[in-house]
């Protein structure tokens, strides 16, 4: 609702508000979290307005909720009761009689109630103090990632202004599994989290900052880690919005000093080295514990006001039971607050309390986790505080490794520049799967391999890198000074200029003819290195097992229109099973099987397909860039029909057939057309050859050999 109308509402200028609600501009904005006129279906040719609908609501009327609301069928009677109850509570609430020391928590009763907690349930506790929109985004991310898990969400509203408290109640009115607990004034994060803990009903509790947004699949790895009885609690990997690390756990790098967050600012892959390391400290921003353990140690100590309560809880738990804490790199959560964590609490009084309580009993110095990161602590600085937190200055360890052929080579740090956007959306990009696969193979060769998403190519952590690999997509990526810079052109060759090629130390291209042409036109030899496949995912089905799918296409409709091969197939009556986005405006909804197939499941889909369709961007087809989809499908033992690209027929030995007209698709996509393809046994042999010659393992070896030769290490 426009600010002017909000002011009228605040000033109780009711006539002005009603006049606006009956006007055409009112149709373009949400009126509240519970009423969005854009979602109304008003009768055509009538003078009915949203205001008429609102004033004529019946108890069972389903309210129009906008696109930003969690989907549910919310009836007017539910919304009305929720708003009235919230307003009544806000109007009558009394300030709690507490000094902020936590006397209101009845821990004895909480212990007795442990037996009544729901087995298998996880309770997420989100603490907030006035940031209703940020909190709503955190809760919506939890709901979107909930899947079939038994997840209870408790929002602890600690002294928020009343308009924020009302907004939270309205946003999640009628959403199963979400509760809002209101404290009239801010009692602090420790007490607020404890209130959520004793109110929860799950056998596990997750303490989450309201500045977080969980990624899909975040919960299950935490549940698995807590099956280890030595693990007292586990922290999710916390990322900055650019996908660099916010916190991968904490360590005490110096004796009798505060803890420091690990791996801050480094690429996400660096956290993999810490997944099995026993930590003595983690952060409350995304901490999962057994509810029984959290209650037994009486939660967070409310003596701490602004920080250090998480470090204190960890030490109390370890002193009571032993064991350790852990970070789980596969449970990913984005942290939307300051990019560098507050070093274990900014409040000097909290730091003083912590150090006085634990002096001479702190775990430090803990330097091993830095070694696991491939770093050494060169020096330890301190922030500006009477009770300073450590600021470790890191340097790369220079190491060697022995690769499978017996050579001892430098252990280099490879940095891939990924054109994908940061966050969960970027996980679906083909570039991300491509980089993950080849980085994994480089690690198998004793190398360190990390990646940076678009927007983070120049973060300070790049100073640690030895080799920069620019995976060229639509955007130009500039080389880094004092590194070995590799350019690998895998798509959109028409965007690549001669001066760009000349900027790099080594240039590779996923096209033999284009590499030859550009080598003649530039100062750099362009080395052919085609796309690749992962045989662990893409391999043939067992002999004798028939295909269960017909003609399959996996890929989104393009922004400027549908894919020609799909529409050509449909024009001659070929049924195409589609997976991808944007198809609903071009084909009937029942022909779209799904919007997304995860990379881990894609091989199984290709194995079950009788025919896999493939197409190319025009410039890729013209310049001989063969799609990665073909490598994956042929490695899966599939028959592929594609538009023409120079060299594709020779490379895949008949497993790929070319179509030029819709009639070709009718012939090749039917049983009669299968005579054009090799038999099943021949396809299996072709698949084995592709898996051997065009695997990511082979590409990783090629890259390593080329860089070692350039360095003179061979």
List the helices and strands and how they pair.
Layout: H1 3-10, H2 14-21, H3 50-55, H4 76-92, H5 107-112, E1 118-128, H6 132-144, E2 151-158, H7 162-171, E3 178-183, H8 189-199, E4 202-209, E5 212-214, H9 219-225, E6 231-239, E7 245-247, E8 250-251, E9 260-261, E10 286-290, H10 291-296, H11 309-321, E11 324-335, H12 348-358, H13 368-372, E12 375-382, E13 390-396, E14 400-402, E15 408-410, E16 413-418, H14 430-444, E17 448-453, E18 467-472, E19 484-489, H15 498-502, E20 506-509, H16 512-521, E21 526-528, E22 549-554, H17 564-571, E23 576-579, E24 592-594, H18 599-608, E25 609-614, H19 618-623, H20 628-635, E26 640-642, H21 648-652, E27 656-658, H22 662-668, H23 680-693, H24 696-711
Helix pairs in contact: 1-2, 4-7, 6-7, 14-24, 17-22
């Amino acid at each position: 609702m426009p600010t002017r109308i909000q002011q009228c509402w605040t000033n109780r200028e009711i006539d002005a508000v009603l006049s606006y609600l009956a006007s055409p501009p009112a149709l373009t904005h949400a009126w509240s979290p519970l009423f969005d006129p854009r979602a109304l279906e008003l009768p055509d040719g009538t003078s009915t307005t949203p205001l008429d609908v609102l004033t004529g609501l019946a108890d069972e009327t389903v309210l129009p909720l906008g696109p930003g609301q969690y989907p549910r069928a919310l009836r007017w009677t539910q919304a009305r009761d929720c708003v009235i109850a919230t307003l009544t509570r806000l109007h009558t609430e009394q300030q709690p009689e507490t000094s902020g020391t936590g006397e209101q928590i009845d821990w004895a009763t909480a212990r007795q109630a442990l037996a009544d907690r729901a087995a298998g349930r996880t309770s997420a506790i989100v603490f907030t103090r006035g940031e209703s929109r940020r909190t709503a985004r955190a809760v919506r991310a939890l709901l979107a990632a909930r899947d079939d898990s038994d997840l209870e969400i408790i929002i602890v509203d600690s002294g928020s202004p009343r308009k924020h408290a009302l907004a939270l109640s309205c946003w999640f009115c009628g959403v199963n599994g979400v509760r809002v607990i209101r404290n009239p004034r801010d009692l602090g994060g420790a007490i607020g989290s404890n209130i959520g803990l004793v109110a929860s009903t799950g056998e596990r509790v997750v303490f989450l900052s309201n500045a977080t947004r969980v990624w899909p699949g975040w919960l299950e790895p935490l549940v698995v880690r807590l099956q280890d009885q030595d693990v007292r609690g586990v922290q999710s990997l916390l990322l900055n919005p650019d996908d660099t690390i916010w916190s991968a756990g904490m360590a005490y790098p110096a004796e009798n000093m505060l803890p420091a967050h690990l791996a801050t600012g480094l690429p996400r892959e660096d956290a993999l080295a810490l997944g099995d390391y026993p930590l003595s400290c983690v952060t409350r921003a995304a901490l999962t514990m057994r509810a029984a353990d959290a209650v037994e140690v009486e939660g967070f100590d409310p003596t701490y006001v602004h920080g250090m309560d998480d470090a204190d809880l960890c030490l109390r738990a370890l002193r009571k039971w032993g064991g350790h804490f852990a970070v789980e790199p596969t449970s990913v959560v984005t942290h939307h607050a300051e990019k560098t964590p507050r070093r274990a609490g900014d409040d000097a009084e909290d730091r003083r309390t912590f150090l006085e309580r634990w002096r001479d009993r702190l775990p430090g110095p803990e330097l091993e986790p830095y070694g696991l990161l491939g770093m050494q602590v060169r020096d330890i600085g301190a922030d500006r505080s009477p009770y300073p937190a450590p600021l470790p200055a890191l340097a790369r360890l220079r190491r060697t490794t022995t690769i499978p052929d017996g050579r001892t080579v430098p252990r280099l740090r490879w940095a891939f520049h990924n054109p994908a956007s940061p966050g969960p959306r970027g996980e679906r990009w083909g570039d991300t799967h491509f980089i993950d696969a080849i980085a994994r193979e480089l690690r198998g060769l004793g190398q360190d391999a990390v990646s940076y998403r678009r927007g983070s190519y120049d973060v300070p952590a790049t100073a640690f890198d030895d080799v920069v690999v620019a995976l060229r997509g639509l955007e130009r990526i500039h080389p880094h000074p004092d590194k070995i810079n590799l350019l690998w052109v895998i798509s959109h060759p028409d965007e690549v200029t001669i001066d760009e090629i000349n900027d790099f130390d080594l240039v590779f291209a996923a096209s033999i003819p284009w590499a030859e042409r550009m080598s003649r036109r530039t100062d750099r030899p362009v080395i052919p290195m085609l796309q690749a496949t992962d045989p662990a995912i893409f391999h043939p089905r067992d002999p004798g097992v028939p295909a269960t799918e017909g003609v399959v296409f996996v890929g989104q409709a393009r922004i400027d229109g549908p894919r020609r091969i799909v529409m050509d197939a449909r024009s001659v009556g070929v049924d195409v099973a589609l997976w991808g986005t944007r198809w609903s405006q071009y084909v009937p909804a029942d022909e779209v099987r799904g919007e997304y197939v995860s990379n881990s499941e894609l091989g199984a889909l290709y194995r079950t397909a009788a025919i896999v369709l493939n197409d190319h961007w025009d410039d890729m087809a013209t310049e001989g860039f063969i799609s990665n989809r073909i490598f994956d499908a042929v490695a899966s033992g599939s028959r592929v029909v594609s538009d023409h690209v120079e060299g594709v027929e020779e490379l895949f030995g008949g497993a790929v057939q070319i179509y030029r007209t819709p009639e070709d698709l009718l012939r090749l996509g039917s049983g009669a057309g299968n005579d054009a393809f090799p038999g099943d046994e021949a396809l299996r042999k072709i698949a084995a050859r592709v898996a051997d010659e065009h695997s990511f393992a082979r590409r990783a070896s090629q890259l390593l050999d080329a860089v070692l030769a350039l360095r003179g290490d061979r």
